[in-house]
Amino acid sequence: YVVAKGAPAAGQHGYSGYLDERILRHEVPGLAKTRVYISGSPAMVENFKPVLITLGVKRRQMVTDFFSGY
Question: What is the pTM of this model?
Fold first, then answer.
């Protein structure tokens, strides 16, 4: 999910729901050149890797952490 405190101010945009390729492409220019930390349930982490690959992030740039018990 995209987390935000309160409603966006006038003239600003906001997101709700799942973080996806469209949001990352818009909000994180140069994503393919950064290290990306993915943390969450094992299924969420594994399902998000292909999204990042689509955006040009290499597997070696991904750091993962799993929350067990989901």
Answer: 0.75
